[in-house]
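re: ur question from yesterday

yeah so i grabbed the chain u mentioned. its 134 aa long if i counted rite. heres the sequnce exactly as i have it in my notes:
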Amino acid sequence: MDQLERELRAEHGLTLADYEILVHLSEAPERRLRMADLADAASVSRSRLTHRVDRMTAQGLVERAPCPTDRRGTFAVLTPAGFSVIEAAAPTHVAGVRRYVVDPLDPAVLDAAGGALGTVAAAIRAAAEEQDQE
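ran it thru and got these structure tokens back, copy pasting raw so excuse formatting
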């Protein structure tokens, strides 16, 4: 992870956490997410996300927009500059993941890891569904 971050920082001025936020926003409808949803997606506290979005807003990568249906809600919105940064950084990140994580592993190990992570993901989904029904 440190090597992936070093490459993103050196080539694009991004941390892995910044990259993750930009990815979530770039994949969201209208390139926007409510701050609470973005915090959940990035698995960070709302206060930590607020700090990151403040920094990214100052860099012109993200902007805030009020939620039209909830006066307390705020959207994080990917700016055109932010989208350009994620487009430029994605190949660097993907190449690093491939070089350090995928390529060194035997295909059988990758298949086993994929199966194991699929089982973990299914357990997490089941737990979330149980909580939603409560």
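noticed a couple things. The radius of gyration is 17 Å. also The chain has a mean pLDDT of 93.
anyway ttyl
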